[in-house]
Amino acid sequence: MQRVDHTRKDPQCAPMIIFIQRLKLRILWSWQGWSAAWREEYSLRSWVWSYLISVLLAFWLPLSVAERALLLALGLLVIAAELFNTAIERTVDRISKEMHPLSGAAKDAASAAVAVTAIAAGLAWVVILIG
Ligand SMILES: Nc1ncnc2c1ncn2[C@@H]1O[C@H](COP(=O)(O)OP(=O)(O)OP(=O)(O)O)[C@@H](O)[C@H]1O
């Protein structure tokens, strides 16, 4: 099938086409990153299942819209932090799998970042439920 190059016909629509093409690529790369992390990282899968349970709870409990929004957003933040953690682990391992205090410190800091976001989400749950 022949490809139609719209930019040749109307130069004004070129930025829009480039934007859409870049967006499609970014979605593809993000999907690749997500599926690889999902396959290989037990921690990510655990956070996703915990998040799904928290979403069900947040909609089942008599909470306000703002409370639900906060809990759902904080839960997603934990998942995002876990993805950053995975990215840092991969980068460190790509540079060298050799044991080194700096490699350990980088991985520990990434792990601590996940813990901080998880504590934030947990605190939000405690404050909303207990007051
Ligand atoms: N190259 C290294 N040099 C020194 N210490 C390391 C190194 N690799 C891992 N460690 C130590 O082992 C810990 C676990 O690292 P690992 O890469 O096995 O993470 P993981 O078990 O996959 O973690 P997560 O469950 O968060 O995915 C690190 O936080 C760090 O303390």
From TrEMBL:
UniProt keyword Nucleotide-binding, yes or no: yes
Residues given in the record as ATP binding sites: E41, E89, E98, M99, H100, K107, D108
One Pfam family cited in the UniProt record for this chain: DAGK_prokar
Transmembrane regions listed in the UniProt entry: 46-63, 69-88, 109-130
Ligase keyword on record: no
Record membrane topology: Multi-pass membrane protein
Annotated Gene Ontology cellular component terms: plasma membrane
Residues of the active site: E82
Binding annotation for a divalent metal cation: E41, E89
PANTHER family (alphabetical): DIACYLGLYCEROL KINASE
Protein name, per record: Diacylglycerol kinase (ATP)
Organism: Cognatishimia maritima
